[in-house]
Amino acid sequence: MFKNLTVGRALVYAALLLMAIYYLLPLYVMLTTSFKSLDDIRAGNMLSLPQAWQGGAWVKAWAEACTGVECNGMQGFFWNSIKMTLPAVAISTILGAVNGYVVSMWRFRGSDALFTMLLVGCFIPFQVVLLPMAQVLGMLGIANTTTGLVLVHVVYGTAFTTLFFRNFYITVPDELVKAARIDGAGFWTIFLRILLPISGPIFVVCIIWQFTQIWNDFLFGVVFASGEAQPITVALNNLVNTSTGVKEYNVDMAAAIIAALPTLFVYMVAGRYFVRGLTAGAVKG
Amino acid sequence: MAALSINNVYKTYANGTDVLKGIDIAIEDGQFLILVGPSGCGKSTLLNMIAGLDDITSGDIEIGGKRVNDLSPKDRDIAMVFQSYALYPSMTVRQNISFGLEIRKVAQAEIDATVNRVAEMLQITHLLDRKPGQMSGGQRQRVAMGRALARNPSIFLFDEPLSNLDAKLRVEMRTEIKLMHQRLKSTIVYVTHDQIEAMTLGDKIAVMKDGIVQQFGSPQDIYDNPANLFVASFIGSPSMNFIPATVIQTGSDIGVKICDDNGCVVLPLPHDKTKLAQFVGQEVIFGIRPEQITDARTAHREGLPVMSCHIDVIEPTGPDTLVFVSLNNTKVCCRTHPTEAKRPGQSMELVFDVSKAVLFDPKTEARIV
Question: What ipTM was assigned to the predicted interfaces of this complex?
Fold first, then answer.
């Protein structure tokens, strides 16, 4: 690999390496700090390795740390986030797939207008919908619940997922649908048997996008769910802000990593499909 | 199998554009109908309307004597082969062929028998477990035909099925489609923009332009008796020559005056004298096909008018040599025997077989004689 190493190329590699360090350094600091004791943190250098590796901060962050009045750690809120994210991702992705299928393959009078309106949904700032959404959730009787948060994220996410699927299905030749119609297949048969089997890449894109968006969301979580139902992002904020004398940086770091783990996991598992899905062009066949 | 009749069919899009303006076509059971025309003439739209994929604005389409305007595609008993083949990418060839039968709830044993029969007929048995992505264009084309054949419909619809194939394969598949038609005696509607496909395959050809059927008839009839200048120029390769000329009466003969660098001659026309007489002294467009202007040896008929012409360019094609001359300041193509053709710059005696020549009105472009 060094045979073609020119000055220009070396510069490129150097720049890339620098960038990588720049992005990885905070993670390194977080990881090492989370395994240090408080004395170690106060005494040592931020970049140094722990003098003695200890996992106490992790246990505390997971099960004992105080997030306000309660002192049960992050565990309950981690499951809150799971209970919120999984259904919200699944529902919004499925809705997006069906929407995208309709606006790309079953054009009807006004379908372009409908798509444009859905598209506008992608550009509406979160803050604009806060008050009306709170009213709606109140009327539905699901304010301050995980169900309410799922609904908010589905409504908000469907605009994006529709866009993803529409842009994917628009590259599929519509002769495919015509052929299936002549073969006698109906709306759902065409969707389930012809289009879904080739939609793998766009599903991956959609799921990663929605998962990170919903898992990482703080604003909706802090506004529409509080106390028992709050998601992990809100709990993390509360944990860090709840001080009982000493600031426990090691616990804060461990809690932050716990909150970030699922998204890291999703990226590692599906990351390469993500790039592949984003660049997936026409379906040849 | 079934007859097809299209009665006064119109298609207007929501924005007001008229795509089809009163189409009338009828073919009998087992006939091979070609819809041919330049792109944008409405031929594919008409095919989609026969298939039920596009709504009919007004008029009727009947398949086997039954009005199908309001039937959905699946209830029209048709099968269609698309230009892009439209094979289902996630399915194997076997699944592609059996999909339509499965949906129609045909018994599994019968499906298997049909798939095997069709695959054997099209020689794709070895491909049955492959997916479309693993096949060449020609193989996909065969599978697309197989999918249509398996259904055994009343009417087959072909939408430019050969245009994505290379030239050699296209000629092969053309013959196969014709063979299949002769064997199955199926009713076929075939859309193409290729006039050679139209001529070679069709029992009946509908030449379309601007949403109107310009002429509907047998291939030979359309070739010999084009209804107007457009049809005459569209069908035939190389295209018919169109020479602007004046109609002149000399004694009892009426003919057209043709000039070249060497001088002028009047080519007497053997057509109906009373008709010709109306145009004496007028400018017309004299239409004559390349094979009707040739060398003396190829013509081998006595008493045809001969003219010595100055050769501009020659194009040997193998069986013939095309000789280009300039008549009435128009480039004219003549088809001659390769050994008889002279060199560019020389003059050559050309024989005009005017018996099949046609005359057009230069303004309306309609056929007049």
Answer: 0.84
